Amino acid sequence: MSETVSHSFKYLPPSAAGLGHVFARPKVVAGLCVIGLAGLGWFYLALLSAGTATGRLGFLQALCGPLQDGSLTIRGVGIVASMWCAMTLAMMLPSAAPMILTYTEIADTAARKAEHIVSPFALAAGYAAVWIGFSFAATLMQIIVMRVGLLDAEMTSTSGLFSGAILVLAGVYQFSALKHACLTHCRQPFPFFFTNWSTTPAGVFKLGLKQGLYCLGCCWAMMLVMFAAGVMNIVWMAVLGIVMTTEKVLTGRRFTYGVGVVLLAFGTAIVLAALASQWPMRS
Description:
- The protein has 283 residues and is an all-alpha fold.
- The chain has one domain (2-282).
- The N and C termini lie far apart (79 Å).
- Helix 3 crosses helix 5 and helix 6 (97-112) packs across helix 10.
- It has helices spanning 2-9, 14-23, 26-54, 56-69, 74-92, 97-112, 120-147, 160-173, 177-187, 189-196, 201-229, 234-249, 254-282.
- The chain is globular and about 75 Å long.
């Protein structure tokens, strides 16, 4: 296969042949896929953030007002869903880079043996499908919490108890067996690919789905922290994205446990502060 590709490049102009050789390498395709999709996610979030900054009340009230008063509109729900899709792609695709690059290393080896390989786009598509599904679930959750008044028109929490509870939940999950089982699969994708290798697009798409489910099991609680930090808080998106990526790169549990302790400490402090602020009214 590789000899046939190289032979075909001989009949192309030098510049086109050079690009052909580059894009025939799975690692290059995978890198461009991760950078491109994550970049599009951040770009879209930046546009939404810019609209918020330049016309904060008008933009956010037009977007979230119907979600609060109960008169749902297709446009409002669609924008919120697209925001969550962009957020998950921007935050989660970089953390999936080690998994995708592991696939491309195996694919490179297979290509040198003239074996059939499937583009890493199929793997990334399966992975992204899981997080797009999570985005729709997060959109539904946002609609519910806005209707009950736990988020305001600027998509920030109105309740210290709500924010603190989310942080405590995320902190406790950092110590759970399910978290570490999923994290192990995210950190060590090679055995999974080696035992489940596929040479069909549908099969590789399923590999991406399974890896996406492992990633979801690892990071869903951390993503919910955005409800406490502010759904459109770009800084917290970047911080949480870095934390989740670091978790998958490092070995051992020290960093994961450390993050859990921090989340528990802040969450507990926020809950206690909220209870203390309500105590005079109760007395």
